[in-house]
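Task card 7
Instruction: Convert sequence to structure tokens.
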Amino acid sequence: MTSPSVLDLVSAPSRAAPESGIVEIVNYGRQVEGLVKLWVGEGDLPTPAFIADAATRGLAAGETFYTWQRGIPPLRKALAQYHTKMLGRPFEPDRFFVTVGGMHAIIVAVRMIVEDGDEVIVPGPAWPNVPAAIELAGGTVKLLPMDYRPEGWTLDLERLEAMAAAPRAKAILVNSPANPTGWTADKETLAAILSIARKHGLWILADEVYGRFVPAGERAASFHDVAEDGERILYVNTFSKNWAMTGWRLGWLEAPPELGQVIENLVQYSTSGVPSFLQHGGIAAIEHGDSFLAYQIERAKRGQAILEAALSESNRVSYAKPGGGFYLFPTIDGIDDTRVLAKRLVDEAGVGVAPGTSFGPGGERFFRLCCARNEGEIRTAAERLADWLRRL
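Output:
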């Protein structure tokens, strides 16, 4: 009798969890000398010293024990003050829960509202981690393809309304500014989405991670601008993008205070909390990180402008100018499989990109470029891409 493979003994949802198409390309090109790597969603700046020093002081002070499951009180207070400053109205600390990065915030939120067979509407192309988290929780992803035109990506609100009326519909994911497309909802669109959610009794999972990376102004429109107290909205955010802290795994979930004990329990049974010394770095980022964030935003704008100029030289390239975030998501006429394209660009152009196939249906013809890199690297990548396109 043949023994079953150990792989056959693990749960079906675990086996079905998709491999990352981005990681596939990273592994493919990892050892290529001189490659300009624009494939992952992070900048190339290390965490500023004032943030690292705050965490180091916490570590030196012996903050190495189990800690508050909801986050240390000083960080929750700092998060409330940050939102008060950004949104112009008071927020209380009991709305904020510290998580192990934005991804953990998503997992906690999904676990809290999604049961087996529940449907979550996800406009796409979309960052693949969120659909995977929904499916691992037993939910069903209902993809709502967005409409692409060079003038911009658009969300079909009539189709959203029809999907929201389904018997098993439970939530709508709204990532704005969006990764990878750069689609950024205005207040009117957010109000329309909220109206649909209210009508059908749905939750909104608001991923506003890139909300500070906008072409003008301090922030993108937020559901906070149109929602009332007590709405069924869970807000996901992170320290990663704003303050160059991707490796820290430090984020937060904002939710109605009534959910506090539920969230605490889910944190307890997943991570048992974020190391308290790391949370002191988060306090420093919020309280002293405005100038660094402004520098990062301007740097990403310059990178985007350089890449746009290079891509615009070719009449075969099309893209929608992003309304926020720090990515470009172009398409090349005649190329339909960007998984293959990404490998060609590694081999033939010396540039690493994220294939649009990684972002689900609707993304297959596109590829993502991260603009949040140093200007020298961006210019090299732009020159290489322009040259490759001329030879195509």
